[in-house]
Write a structure and sequence with these properties.
By secondary structure, this protein is of the alpha+beta class. It has two domains: 155 residues, CBS-domain; 117 residues, 2-Layer Sandwich (Beta-Lactamase). The strands form three sheets. A five-stranded antiparallel sheet has the order 9-8-12-11-10, with helices on both faces. β2, α2 and β3 form a beta-alpha-beta unit. The longest helix is centred in the middle third of the chain and has 19 residues.
């Protein structure tokens, strides 16, 4: 008899409720998942967030995505449906269809997530993953994606492209090594660089020499801990002048828990004391 653990997608990507809204946004942008399990400090699932609820939270004009935690919007959580990894597959479809997300969070003896079971997992089991059925499996995935998009009444990619592009903060996505993959319109508005100007370049070129040490330290922290604390720094504009900013970095992992992307968020600062601080640090090195 097959059990839930045999079909689930293991090691689900989650987001802690103590993380910032921006952290959650970066997870959605990097993975294109439709739902993200929210966990507490004990790594127990306490709810789900989908893209529409996140957009609603980001639409709050009093919300600073860099500092306001996901927990602040716990009233928007979708109640998760949990299932034991050892549960048999009998009756799984009615249970799945009764949920708001059409997904089951797989746990084992607690609320700690081991995996996710979705309609696509069921379809994969029906089709099988031998080479002659790969094309059929891809076609089924397209069908599931199409059905879910219409069920949601919106296009996830469009929503998050708009959220990324229209953010009041400068945003850059890089690969794990810091090579720029995308930037939003605020980068051009503040620094003068169009996306095509900086695409594939290492993001470190945007930092003046006196800020590179802290940049390296922040990236190291983000890769180790998943996120680097927001701190002041400076960026080089296209005209080679400086722009004082607050910088936040998040590391986005894939389903195998390997770092796939780095997300950078920059907020323009007021005042001009940042350069003095960095120059002093450099002289003390």
């Amino acid at each position: 008899m097959k059990h839930v653990r045999d079909l689930m997608s293991p090691k689900p990507i989650t987001c802690k409720e103590s993380a910032s809204l921006d952290d959650l946004l970066q997870v959605f942008l990097a993975t294109n998942h439709k739902f993200i399990p929210i966990v507490n400090e004990a790594e127990e699932v306490i709810g789900l967030m989908d893209e529409l609820r996140l957009v609603k939270a980001l639409g709050d004009k009093k919300t600073d995505p860099l500092t306001v935690s996901v927990k602040h919007f716990s009233n928007l959580y979708i109640e998760p449906t949990l299932i034991e990894a050892s549960a048999p597959l009998n009756g799984i479809l009615p249970m799945m269809l009764s949920t708001n997300s059409n997904r089951l969070i797989v746990v084992s003896g607690s609320r700690r997530p081991l995996g996710v079971l979705s309609p696509l997992n069921i379809l994969r089991a029906i089709v099988g993953l031998n080479p002659k059925n790969i094309a059929a499996e891809e076609k089924l995935k397209e069908t599931v994606d199409f059905a879910e998009k219409n069920w949601k009444g919106t296009d996830t990619k469009d929503i998050f492209f708009q959220a990324f592009e229209n953010s009041p903060y400068m945003m850059i996505m890089t690969d794990r090594d810091g090579k720029i993959l995308n930037s939003n319109q605020r980068i051009e508005a503040v620094l003068g660089y169009k996306t095509e100007d900086i695409l594939t370049k290492p993001i470190i070129f945007l930092f003046p020499e006196f800020a590179i040490k802290r940049y390296n330290q922040a990236v190291h922290t983000a890769k180790d801990l998943g996120k680097a604390p927001t701190e002041p720094t400076a960026l080089l504009k296209k005209n080679r002048s400086f722009e004082d900013v607050d910088m936040g970095i998040s590391a986005i992992r894939d389903e195998s828990r390997q770092i796939k992307y780095l997300s950078f968020v920059f907020r323009v600062r007021s005042g001009d004391d940042v350069h003095i601080e960095y120059i002093r640090d450099k002289k003390e090195d």
